[in-house]
Sequence to fold (223 residues):
Amino acid sequence: MNSERTAYTSQAQTALATNNVLRNTYMLLSMTLLFSAAVAGTAMALNAPHPGLIITLVGYFGLLFAVEKTKESAMGLVTVFALTGFMGYTIGPILNMYLSAFSNGGEIVMLAMGGTGAIFVGLSAYALASGKRFNQWGGMLFMGVLVAFVMGIIAVVFSIPALSLAVSALFVLLMSGLIVYQTGEIVHGGETNYISATVTLFVTIYNLFLSLLHLLGAFMGEE
Fold:
């Protein structure tokens, strides 16, 4: 009897902790998305230049490392906003480019935003309602992202448009899978740090948005 009571107590505590992680993750994710959007809007208004591939990669991985080192302390919140603000800054010049390069640039941007939101909400709802844990996807998604990242660098360095489009399509699939995987990990206690969970979901949304923007620009863009 005592062992059963202990087991039920442990399950209740685990469920409570998981719900707290989920609630804190979505709260912080909402704040970082708003902050990133504000920084992107400011960069657009100032017509700020894009930092370039090298600075973007160094800034992203450097700040990501800082988040990982500080995620267990209050400083983790500072590094999270530094990372998401930096990523928002990199989006501003890209949006300006689409708005100036295409006569229907505003429509493309709005469609990309709407598509990103719909995919995130739909897949998050599926992961929450299914009651399943998708931890078996982890290794496959990690390898897929690594391969897509290398292919993306090759496409940029050697200016291969077809490969760039293929990478964007692959990223849409991979990011969709990551939304389901990460949400499942939070729900089932596989991820217990809401800062790490927030960063993963933010990066997923960021890459999903840029990939959809690229695909829509390529197939719908009107000069």
The CA atoms of residues 70 and 121 lie 29 Å apart. The chain has one domain: 2-220.
